[in-house]
Amino acid sequence: MKSSLTNPRLAVGNASKILSPTPASLLANCHNASVARINSIFLSAMVILFIATTSSNGEEKSLGPKRVAIGQVSTNDALSVKSDRKGKTVDMGQVLSALQQRLNVVFVQSKKFDIVEYRDVGRRVDDIDTQKESGVFDSKTLAKRGRLRAAEFIVETTIDHFLDSEVDQPFADGSKGYRRRLQLSGTLKIVNTETGSMMDASSINSETNDVIVLPAGQVIEKQRLEELFPALLNDFCDRVVQSTENSIYPMRIIDVEKKLVTINRNDKSGLKKDEILKVLGPPKVIKDEETGREIRRPGAALGEVRITELDPNYVQAEIIKETQEGAIVKNAFLKRP
């Protein structure tokens, strides 16, 4: 019986003849089939690996949290003059100082970035030199020059609008309505320190309100007024961190289990339950040979998912459409329609 692994007819010149398979030919064909299968598996693995190690712009990225430096929160002269002229109880100096501290805390607590201090590098180097020159410290425990880590991205926040509005409305029965409204708006800029290019520039807006009706002769509690300001800062900082995450880390699938996928976002990401997201392969970079300009476009469509759960640590969704069975895999990218 002829083996299906060998070609029974070989053409030699204008003639052909039937050959019987030999042990050597069987072994060679089995080897070739095994190599072809291994190559196929290897190719599939490389596709998945490429998706896993490619950033949103199609370039390779290092694993682990990105090193981020938080720039000094600033404002412009026009805003400062406007705020001072209104004579509010909370001035811009307090706003900037409190916002800077809260921003540092929220970034660290998010555990999504490796926060690098860069504003006080000069002082830190002087401290190292002072420790060495004093002769008091064990040289084995002293920090060494050149070991400070450089930031990959710098986050800069500029406040361009601040409002502290208070309105009292007396009523005929002697009671009084009270409303306090706080608004804080700014511009977020994310700079890539390697290229010096601005990755993103977006507006951040936060607002808190408190409305209460006080009976005649009753005075509003001071504590109630003081709670509004921290709430405003917390909301603003949460939005800054989330916007930074969206810019630095592309939205992607981090786990696939049957028809359920887990996404690297959380309940503060702005995503909504039942929202549908498109699933894409790795983005492609095309170079225009005439101008030398690089054009980046989204990867091929793989399907769609619908968000089913929003958690403080992750977002879960169900696969509702695939271009082919098993097309949606771990590390595939996501975008809103």
Overview of this structure, please?
With 337 residues, this protein is α+β, with helices and mostly antiparallel strands. The protein folds into two domains: 66-129 and 148-248, Lipoprotein like domain (Double Stranded RNA Binding Domain, 2-Layer Sandwich), CATH 3.30.160.150; 251-335, Beta Barrel (Thrombin, subunit H). 30% of the residues lie in helices and 34% in strands. It has five helices and 16 strands. It has helices at 23-52, 77-86, 92-110, 121-134, 222-248; strands at 9-12, 15-18, 66-70, 74-75, 113-115, 153-170, 176-192, 198-214, 253-257, 260-263, 276-280, 284-287, 294-297, 301-310, 315-322, 333-335. Strands 3, 4, 5, 6, 7 and 8 form a six-stranded mixed β-sheet that branches. Strands 9-10-15-14-11-16 form a six-stranded antiparallel β-sheet, with no helix packed on it. A two-stranded antiparallel sheet has the order 1-2. β14 (301-310) and β15 form a beta hairpin. α3 packs across α5. The longest helix is centred in the first third of the chain and has 30 residues, at 23-52. Residues 1-20 and 38-61 have low confidence and may be disordered.
